[in-house]
Amino acid sequence: MVAFLGRRRAASGGYGWNPGDPPHISPTFAAVGCYRLLDEEVPDARQVAEFVRAHYPVAEARRTDRPLWRFDFEQVQSLLWLGEPVASFQPLAAKWTKPADFTKTYELDGNPVLQHQAMAVCVRRLTGIDQSGPAGDEWRRYFAGRRRPNGTFNTTPASDGSGGHILNTVWGTWALEALGQSVSVSKNLAGWVQDCQLESGGFSYAPRAELGGVDDVIYSWAALWLLDRAGQEPRRKAAFLSWLGSLATEDGGYQDRPGGLPNPTATYYAVECFRLLRESPGAAKRAPGAPRHVLPAGARVFTIQVQAPGAGSPSEAAYLAGKLGIHVWSAKNCAPGWIGEAQRIADTRKVRVLFAAGNEEYGTYVSVPGLGTYSHLVDLVAPPKRDFGEQLPKKNFAYPWGEFRETRIRQLRDGSGRMVWQFNENEEITRALLDEALFKKTYSAISTFHFGLENFLESQPFLQRWLGRLPMVALQDAHGTEPWWWTDWLTGFRTLFIAREPTWEGWLAALERNHVASVRRDAVTKGELQMAGALPHVRDFLLAHRSEWAWWDEQEEARGHPAAVMTVLRRGSLFEAGAPTAGLSLRIRLWADNTGQGVPRTPRAELVSLKVDDREVTPNAVSAPTDRYLIYAIPDSGARRATARVRALGTGKETILTADLG
Question: CA of 309: how far to CAs of 306, 334, 552, in Å?
Answer without folding.
Answer: 9, 8, 22
